[in-house]
Amino acid sequence: MPRTMETGEAASSNLLLPVLPLREICLFPEASLTLVTAAVPALRAVEVAQRTGGRLLAVCAKDEGTRETHAVGTIAHRIELDGQRRARVVSLMGMDPWVAEATPLSEGDPGDDWGPAVEALARYLHAHADLRSFLDQQRRSKEPMAWVNLACQHLPITATARQKLLDADAPERCLKISRGLDALLRKEQGS
CA-to-CA distance for 91 and 129, rounded, in angstroms? Predict the structure, then answer.
């Protein structure tokens, strides 16, 4: 198997990556997670990643104890899980750890769509100083879309809602987050 577990360039643009199944968590591009786990599949995925170029595919599991995952996850590197880009699972192989054939996905150009998302995020964070402080400490990129992705990962929303945001490309994610944050803020304020 090649050093980075990538398939041959002539064969396709798909990648072969060890899978890190996450429960109730989605990793977004340009965001980071510190993960503490004793689960054998997770530890083996990290071990394989360390031996094969340092990348793995972080994918939210649909149900605990099953082999079902969501179709879109994030290619990550390092053990701290620095999200690089979204990818769609083509197939899962193996038992422990899983290996996925994955197709990297384009984020799309958020164009001017990130503006309303960042504005909605600013309104929400104005009302939640602790979350704003936490996100400021976690932020690694000054890019507006990185800010939106980091917020998507840490907002108080369900794992299902978070996965729907990860499934969406950048323009759609910006639209959803701008609408969702304003609705969440109105609900919290009792309006």
Answer: 42
